[in-house]
UniProtKB/TrEMBL annotation:
This is Polysaccharide deacetylase family protein. Residues 27-202 form the NodB homology domain. InterPro entries: Glyco_hydro/deAcase_b/a-brl, NODB_dom, Polysacc_deacetylase_ArnD. One of its GO terms (cellular component) is membrane. PANTHER family: CHITIN DEACETYLASE 1-RELATED, GLYCOSYL TRANSFERASE-RELATED. The keyword Hydrolase applies. One of its GO terms (biological process) is carbohydrate metabolic process. It comes from Abyssalbus ytuae. The keyword Metal-binding applies.
Length: 209
């Protein structure tokens, strides 16, 4: 099934308890990166963001943080925010609530954040309730680059972002090996494109509504 780059309004309405975008009248957008930190790739992303004074939110896999704490430390030191992406990138639809929460708590020992993004965007209603009870804000997305899809050319990945992004959009990229080629091509062009249009790139605030 082909993934639609722009999240339909009906989905946002039905799942209104999750955060899909940030309501704003400012020319601000919210870049997010899933699945890191990854050697070389995450560092490249950080270098690229710094060229444009751009801030972003990194939804980190716990085992990657444990393996590469120096990269995670750099993310924080450079003023970006982080979020919990479970310890093992677990599939919510195939995991019990108890297992899902324990996996999330394991990551919370390494990632100090109340922001959570479910891997694959797949999460059950009971899992969502349990996470909210623990104080998490479940962050989804308004636009997804689809950078991990090797069948897509890099230009399509770029167009997925610039054609659908609006003020307040939460945009998903991946700082992973699988997405590296498309992400690197698209991110540089996205940063340049929106900077020229007067946009700023911000972290998702910890107290997001």
């Amino acid at each position: 099934m082909k993934l639609i780059p722009k999240t339909p309004g009906i989905v946002k309405f039905i799942l209104s308890g999750y955060i899909w975008d940030i309501k704003t009248h400012e020319k601000s957008i919210y870049l997010t990166f899933d699945d890191g930190p990854t050697p070389f790739i995450t560092n490249w992303v950080l270098d690229e963001l710094s060229k444009y004074n751009a801030k972003a939110t990194f939804f980190c896999i716990g085992k990657n943080v444990k393996t590469h704490p120096e990269i995670y430390k750099r993310i924080i030191e450079e003023g970006h925010s982080t979020g919990n992406h479970t310890f093992d990138h677990v599939k919510g639809w195939k995991t019990s609530v108890e297992e899902y929460i324990e996996n999330t708590k394991k990551t919370a020992e390494l990632v100090n954040s109340n922001l959570f993004r479910p891997p694959y965007g797949k999460i059950t209603i009971p899992q969502g309730w349990a996470l909210k009870k623990l104080g998490y804000k479940i962050i989804m997305w308004d636009v997804v680059a689809v950078d991990w899809d090797c069948k897509l050319d890099s230009e399509t990945t770029y167009n997925n972002v610039i054609n659908y992004t609006a003020p307040g959009s939460i945009i998903v990229f991946h700082d992973s090996v699988k997405a590296e080629k498309n992400m690197k091509y698209a991110l540089t062009k996205v940063l340049e494109y929106f900077t020229k249009k007067g946009y700023t790139f911000k972290c998702i605030p910890a107290k997001v509504l």
